[in-house]
Amino acid sequence: MNMESALEPSTAAGTHRGPEAVIALTGVRRDYGERPVVSDVSIELAAGQTLTVLGPNGAGKTTVLRILATLLRPSAGGVTVLGARLPREAWKARGRIGYLGHQPLLYRELTVRENLGLNARLHGIERPEARIEELIGRAGLARRGGELVRNLSAGMLQRAAICRALLHEPELLLLDEPRSHLDPAAGVIVDELLGPEPGRSRVLVTHAVEAGLAEADQVLLLRADGIVAHAGPAAALSPGDARAVYGGAVR
Amino acid sequence: MSAFRAILAKDLRTELRTLESVPAMALFAATTFVLFRFGLDRTALEGSLAAGVLLATVLFAAILAINRVFVAEREQGGFDVIRLAPVDGTSLFAAKVCVLAIYLLALELIAVPVFAILFAVGAAGLAPLAAVLVLADFGLATVGALVSSIAVNSRARDLIAPLLLLPLLVPVMIAAAGAAEPLLAAGGPAYGEFGQWMAILALYDLVFVAVGYAVYDFLLED
Predict the structure, then answer these.
(1) Measured between beta carbons, which residues in chain B are less than 8 angstroms from residue A69?
(2) Does domain A1-96+171-177+208-251 correspond to CATH entry 3.40.50.300?
(3) pTM of the full predicted structure?
(4) What per-residue confidence (pLDDT) applies to A248?
(5) Would you kindly state where each structural domain of chain A is located, as residue ranges?
(6) Tens digits of per-residue pLDDT, B123-152?
(7) A125 touches chain B (CB under 8 A)
(8) Which end of chain A is more exposed for a tag (fewer CB within 10 A), N or C?
């Protein structure tokens, strides 16, 4: 694929269509005040696949993720997540989505275990203790599970947030730079926790172009002005084309 | 119900750990009583003046807690936690109403004895006064939770919450003062229009509970 075709706004051509799609965006736009943050985003993702969202700072990656998480309403366009048309049917999708955003969504004055216990009760998980211990063990937090969240380092906090996102065994994971704040060893742990699994679909927002493309079945590439540069199969986009939206600043 | 209990337990546990709200409210109330005592130059109060001093102090102390009740939700992403879970937003509303009501009851356990001592208020009227305060607290908590939810996402939340709250709470103050005044009369408690004022307070509480349940899910959404 040449550079020009990669940077042309595209639609969801070549993406998966049909009832099995866990995500379907059609002409989605989101404005903050008068300013459009993302425009005309159209893409679909089939069950069990990974969508990687790439783009420079301010391109609207997090906005797309928050729309999918039912936390933001689109200003225009159609959004279907796990069969629920958003925002009207957001209640159908909530509880089936695991969201890892920039904020850990953990209460600072509660311990890691208390935070996970609170989330378990909100998600209606009965007897969650075994699941909580399993997760904090896998995340390497077993010895820190009783500490107040405000005392955790940024990396530990990220691991605790990952446990929160996975606690209710969601069908769709929405991950906004999941490896941020993590050292290489923790990165390996987190890759195991958040990696592909049968029945789990993922949307991954990242600045690591090669790694993001390697994991992707579909790619949404956004330019700095929120215009779609590519929306479709990962195989149709080379790392070089993806890096072009960063203005040549990324090697 | 599980979500309601979980949020309520989280808030009470956090308050017990941080002691951010109730001690500040109690200190504010005690200081205000001292100011009234010297400002009015009275060592004893009764009737409408006693009711006014007590209820105005409770109201302004309540605003301290109301301003803070959604701070953790805003700063630590609690609204997103609720919206990502398969629960009604009304669980959050109900939990916050209960949290505020508990804070106010805790405040009054400290403030009313201080008030009675500083202003030589007879003990006979204090027991029925508790019923007035419970209904007034519920009204303050219900309207406070609603208004605080609206104001919390504004940059001027510290200003907006009291500006919206105070006019909405005028009926609570009128009814609570009407019910409390004869209870704090110099000659001992009287119950002439007590029932009528209590009915008005209860009706006000019910109306705002219904409003909260009707609109709260919309308040939580983007």
Answers:
(1) 84
(2) yes
(3) 0.88
(4) 56
(5) 1-96+171-177+208-251
(6) 888 889 999 999 999 999 999 999 999 888
(7) no
(8) C
